[in-house]
Amino acid sequence: MSAAAGAGQPLLAEWAAPHGLPPFAAIEPAHYEPAILAAMQAHRAELAALGAQAAPPDFDNTCAAFDRAGRRLAHIVAVFGTVCASATNDALQAVQRRLAAPLAAHHSAIHTDAAFFARLDALHGRRATLGLDPAALRLLERQHLDFVRSGAQLPEPQRRRHAELMQALAELHTRFGQNVLRDEADWQLPLPDAAAMAGLPAFVRAAARQAALERGLPGAVITLSRSLVVPFLTFSERADLREQAWRAWVGRGEREGATDNRPVVREILRLRQELAQLMGHACYADFALADTMAGTRGRVDALLQAVWQRAVPRALADRRELEALRDAALPAQAGQPLQPWDWRYWAERVRRERFALDDAEIKPYFELGRVVQAAFACAGRLFGLRFERRDDLPVYHPDVVAYEVFDADGALRGVFLQDNFARAGKRSGAWMNALRWQARNTADGRAQTPVILNNNNFARGEAGSPTLLSLDDARTLFHEFGHGLHGLLSDVHWQRLSGTQVLRDFVELPSQIFEHWIGEPAVLREHARHWQTGEPIPDALIERLQRARRFNQAYETVRYTASAMLDLALHARTEAEPPADLAAWEQAFLAEAGLPAGCGVNHRLVHFQHLFAGSSYAAGYYVYLWAEVLDADGYDAFTEAGGPFDAAVAERLRRHVYAAGNAVEPNAAFAAFRGRAPRLEPLLAKRGLLEEAAPA
C-alpha cells in the first residue's frame, strides 16, 4: 500500500523500520479498527479477483495465489493480537471486543467463497494428475481441508449458520480471556509484616516487593502470576495465607459479577456442539480430533489412561509420605487429609530432606540473562544460529528485547523478540507467536524472513537486583524458545505450511524436546553461574538436581492428565445443553476418575484459557502429553548417539522437525528424524512411571 493511502494511518503505510518491523511507537489503539477493516476489504478484493479469473484453475493461479493473498491483513492482525495479549489496556480491549465478530466473519467469508472454492475443489479432485511436488501437494490438500472445515461444502443455509456460530464464538472467546485477565489483575494478597512472610526465601520476598511497586502499592504483595504464586504456595509457612492464594488462583473466572466465566463457558459449549453437528460429527471432540495426528477420541483416551493408571498410585503413595511428614511436624493435624494448598509446601520439605535441595540454593545460578544466553548457545551448537541484540529495533513495550538471528554462514535467518516479565496488562502463561511467518512464495519474489516472539511471565527482580529463575521457570523459557526455533528455522516455500502451523498434537514436539538441554550437566556447568560470584554451579548440586528430577512428577502428571481428561470428556458430550452447574460436573467427573485428594488440576474450566480463550486447544489439551511421547523418544536419539550435541542427530532434528513446518505429514516427519515410529516407554521413564508404583 502506498504511503499516500496510509497517510495518518501507520498500520497501512509502508513499514519502514529495519526488517519491516511495525512502527509500534506510532500506533495507537484507535488505529487498529479502521486499518483491519480496510485490510479485510482489500483481502476480499484479492479473493474476488482470484475467483473471477478467466483462465482455468491451476496450482499457480489458485493455490499459490491464495497463499500470497491477505498478507497485509495477517501482519496487522498479528500486531494487534500481540499487543492485546502482552500490553493491553481498556481502549485496546474495547477494540478487541468490537473486532472479534468481524474478524471471524471475514475468515468465514474467505473460506466459503463459492467462486474461489469451485476452482480449488476442481484442482483437489484431480490432484493426483497435476504432477505436484510433495510440498505443493500438501499445500493444496491443506488449503482444501481448511475450506471444508470452515463450511465451504455445506448448503447455503448451513453455511450462513456456520458463519454466525464462528462470530458468536469469537466474541465469547474474547470475553472469556478478558475476564480471566481482569480477575488476575484485580487480586493481590498483601504481606504486611514479617509474620506474613514467614518461610519465604529472599527471592520470593524481593519479587513480592517488586510486584507491589509495579502496582503502586506499599510493602509486598502476592499476585496470581504463576512465577509468584507457586513459590508462595511452596515456601510460605502460613497455611491460612496459602489457602487464600490458592482459592484465588483456582477461582479465577468464577467470581460473581461482570467477570463470571460460567455462563460464557456454557454458551461456548452449546455453540460448539451445534457446530460439530452441523459439520456431521456427534460431538465437538470428534470434529476437533479429525484433523490431528491422534485422529480419534479412542487413541487420545488410550494414551491418557495408560499414563493415568500409572501416575495415580504413585501420587497416592507420595501423598501418604507428605502427610506423614506433616503429622510429625504438626501432630494436631494427624489423620486429616492433605489440602491442595498444602501439597507444594510439604513436597518442598520432603525434597529438602531427601535430596538436600532448596530453591534458595538453586536460583542464584539461574539468573535470567544467563538462561537466555544458555538457550542461544544451545541453538548455536545444535543448529549454527547466532543471536545479536539490537536495541534500536522498534518494540511494543520497554521489556521487549530484540535480536537479529543469523545462520552459520552469516545469512539473516529472522528477528526474535523476547518479552520475559509479568506485568499488569499482560495475560498469564507463556507463549510464542509470529508477527511474520517465513515464506518464499511472495509477490515480489523476495524471501519473507520470520519475526518471532516469545512471551513469559517471570516475576521481576527488584531494582538493582537480578531476576532469578527456578529450574521450572528455566524449562519454561527453553520450552517457548523451542517454539521460537520452530518459527525461526522454518525453511518452506508456502506460508500456509510455515513454522508452527502444524497439526496441534505435533506443535509441542519442537518446544518440549528443547527443554531437555537445560537439564544437561554440560549446559549447566557452562551457563549456570552464581549471579554474585560468577562461580559455576557445583557438580554436587548438579548431581542432586539429577537425582531429584523425577521427584513429585506423579503429582504434576496427575494434575495435567486430569485436565486433559476433563477437556476430552466435556467436548465428547453429545447433549445440546451443557451441564447446568459446571463446577459440580467437574467435581463429579474428577471424583469418578479417581483424582487423589489434594492434587487438584492444572486448570479449572472457568479459567482454562487453552480451551475457552480460543478454540485451538479445545478437545486438544492432551497434545502436551502426546508430544511428550515424541520428545522423550526423540531425545533418546541424542543419548544413543553419545551426547546432547551430536551433529548428525541435530541435523536430522533441524531438517525433519524444525525446518519442515507443515510441508511433511507429521508421522512421516518424526519417522524421518527418529528412523521409526515413537514408543511410549521413554515418556514413562522420563516421568518416573516405569517402576512399579507403591500400592494405594
Q: Spatial order of the strands in the main sheet?
A: 3-4-5-7-6
In helices, the fraction of residues equals 40-55%
Any idea of the CATH class of the largest domain?
A: Mainly Alpha
The biggest sheet amounts to: 5 strands, mixed
> What is the terminal separation in angstroms?
67 Å
Q: What is the CATH superfamily label of the largest domain?
A: Neurolysin, domain 3
Number of domains: 4
Oligomeric composition of the shown chains: single chain
* Percent in strands: 5-15%
The geometry reads as globular
Spans of at least 5 consecutive residues whose pLDDT stays below 50 are 1-5, 692-696
Instruction: Please state the average pLDDT score.
Output: 95
The total beta strand count reads 7
What is the architecture of the largest domain at the second tier of CATH?
Answer: Orthogonal Bundle
Q: Treating each run of at least 4 consecutive H or I residues as one helix, how many helices?
A: 27
Helix-strand layout with pairing:
Blueprint: H1 29-51, H2 59-68, H3 71-86, H4 90-111, H5 114-125, H6 134-149, H7 156-186, E1 189-190, H8 202-214, E2 221-222, H9 226-235, H10 239-250, H11 262-278, H12 284-289, H13 297-329, H14 343-355, H15 359-362, H16 368-383, E3 386-389, E4 401-406, E5 412-421, E6 431-436, E7 451-458, H17 471-488, H18 509-515, H19 521-527, H20 539-547, H21 553-571, H22 582-593, H23 609-612, H24 623-641, H25 647-658, H26 666-674, H27 681-686
Parallel strand pairs: 5-7
Antiparallel strand pairs: 1-2, 3-4, 4-5, 6-7
Helix pairs in contact: 1-3, 1-4, 1-5, 4-7, 5-6, 7-11, 9-14, 13-14, 13-21, 16-17, 17-18, 18-24, 25-26
